[in-house]
Design a protein that fits this description.
Layout (H helix, E strand, L loop, with lengths): L15 H10 L5 E2 H14 L7 H17 L3 E4 L2 E4 L8 H9 L1
Antiparallel strand pairs: 1-3, 2-3
Helix pairs in contact: 1-2
């Protein structure tokens, strides 16, 4: 009886939405979601990294922001969000560096 050997290949591409959220929240500013999304959306448009339409991007950004809150990298106070000192841990560059070394 032979066993099937499965190889799993996962190529992780940089997450532009999370990276842009990290970039914007690195400043010591507090943002409401709509203000935060407008800045992130404009930055992504400038980098030509927008796909799927604005409403879909808004949903993805909200989901990723809530994930950052759950991980303890962003503080949520009412409807305001503020990045904490370890917010950079969510960036693709930081994650890639952790996997390399």
């Amino acid at each position: 009886m032979s066993t099937t050997r499965r190889t799993r290949f996962s190529r992780r591409v940089p997450d532009h939405v999370t990276d842009e959220l990290v970039t914007v929240l690195t400043d010591d500013k507090t943002f409401g979601f709509n203000d935060l999304f407008e800045v992130v959306y404009e930055n992504l448009k400038a980098r030509n990294a927008v796909s799927g339409g604005e409403e879909m991007l808004r949903l993805r950004a909200y989901e990723k922001l809530q994930n950052l809150v759950t991980r303890g990298l962003v503080e949520k106070n009412g409807k305001e969000y503020r990045g904490l000192e370890n917010i950079h841990e969510a960036s693709s560059a930081h994650i890639a560096a952790q996997q390399q070394g």
